[in-house]
Design brief:
Largest sheet: none
Radius of gyration: 18 Å
Number of domains: 1
CATH architecture: Up-down Bundle
């Protein structure tokens, strides 16, 4: 019997896609509102991240994996990560935090290159050998570091002490860059041998 493509995991993925522009708009348009201008986009991002954590677990636990889910889930993930990173970079520039933005742009580039690299690797390996490139432990740690780091960077301006020196943001950026870079290297080491350069 064919499964309904719009089951709960797929609906969560669609909700994640719809929440991304909400996050971007609240982040950029509410930036001059004290307290709530930071809390609201952070809460929206947390809810968006929770859908990312739940949809895959529910799909696997209740055998609700569908072709639509295989398409929309990774698309929603990339949409969420890349849109949020670019939005935060713009948000920093709008707030006049140019030094912070200058450092963060390198984190964004590392994340962008890693996502493009791993996505390309998944496609080629699956096409050549039929092997599905599963999420590694480093990949999961990378995802958590990006989510926690993003929320921390957003709310840092309303946290005493950290709002003045941005230590929290710099630490989060370093962790995000480190886990992203090394998870990408981990994928390359594990699956690059499956790519035949002569084909």
């Amino acid at each position: 019997m064919k499964k309904n493509s719009m089951n709960i995991p797929n609906m969560l993925s669609v909700v994640r896609v719809l929440l991304v522009p909400v996050f971007v708009l609240t982040l950029l348009l509410m930036r001059d509102i004290e307290i709530w201008g930071f809390i609201v986009p952070a809460l929206v991002y947390i809810v968006t991240g929770l859908t990312d954590m739940l949809d895959g677990k529910i799909a696997r636990k209740y055998n609700l994996v569908t072709d639509f889910g295989k398409f929309i889930d990774p698309l929603a993930d990339k949409f969420m990560v890349l849109s949020s990173m670019i939005a935060i970079l713009l948000w920093m520039c709008q707030r006049g935090e140019m030094l912070l933005a200058g450092v963060f742009v390198w984190v964004v580039l590392i994340i962008l290159l890693r996502e493009l690299g791993v996505t390309s690797l998944r496609l080629v390996v699956a096409g050549n050998s039929g092997i599905v490139v599963a999420a590694s432990m480093l990949g999961k740690i990378k995802t958590v570091s990006q989510m926690v780091g993003t929320v921390a960077i957003i709310v840092e301006p309303i946290i005493p002490f950290f709002s003045e020196n941005h230590i929290l943001s710099y630490v989060c950026m370093a962790v995000m860059a480190f886990t992203t870079l090394f998870s990408g290297i981990d994928y390359l080491k594990a699956y690059l041998p499956y790519i035949n350069s002569n084909k």
